[in-house]
Specification:
alpha/beta; 9 helices; Rossmann fold; eight-stranded mixed sheet; globular
Amino acid sequence: MMLLACNQNKNMSTLNLTQEWDKTFPKSELVNHSKVTFTNLFGITLAADLYIPGSFADAQDDKLPAIAVCGPFGAVKEQSSGLYAQHMAERGFVALAFDPSYSGESGGEPRRMASPDIMTEDFSAAVDFLSNHELVDPERIGIIGICGWGGIALNAAAVDPRIKATVASTMYELTRVNEKGYFDQNDSEDARYAMRQMVARQRTEDFRSGEHPRAGGVVDPLPDDAPWFVKEYHAYYKCPRGYHPRSGNSTDGWAIDGMMPMINTRLLRYADEIRSAVLIIHGEKAHSRYMGEDAFKLLKGDNKELMIIPGATHVDLYDDVKGVIPYDKMEAFFNEHLK
């Protein structure tokens, strides 16, 4: 039985997809896994891992709810997003974990560019794919955005009404961090102008050289005075726990000149117009908690929830080391709103 959406072989550039299991988490025997590709509206071919509940591997009349998953920003589908997707597939959802444009196994040149617009489109392209999959009910599709992709997920929910439920886990609002710095400590016109000048100079040099230098992933080795949350990132991305060679956070980061759109974009501009259900999840001790709580304040309607995990930090919601990711809550949330 063909288990791929109908545009699988149309307008595709060729991607070099790894066929062996190279995730940072063990493979579940309760789901069926396959590699798939699809295009976004910018013509970029995205690579993804499709997880299908094992009990629905054969053709059936019933259609299943589906979830597209991405994040964290700078990570790949072999890390947190794949873990979340596999867990949700174990619970009865068709789940798609994808690499964003310009990163991982997905297409797009130059590599490791970042655009809030294209990133938001990547989520909608994943919804395109799932909406046309033969096992999926197109009226029962949700998304999960992790870390920086939590803010992107809210932006996608605001623009794409096909998304019926959204989970933002341990979310960052990427544009806020770039505009104002961590904890809004650099929220000034002068600070933003200095950043714009730096990126503009880099663009001039990159045009001349034909290269696009990257800013570096998580700092390694760690300086003694590194903030505690940077130490947390290091313990995940730079150590066997979460390291992956295609992950920008594990290796050399994002292109410096590609960060310009992040400075001038208001990612949550229409968050108050999201009519579908939203669940924001944060750790009690997460350094990013203020971003999730402030995003929640923008939301309207009785189908919006904020869940704070006692004692958990930001990175605790990346994997199952601490066992605090609330899969039961997410399952119940999606079951309630994807029906």
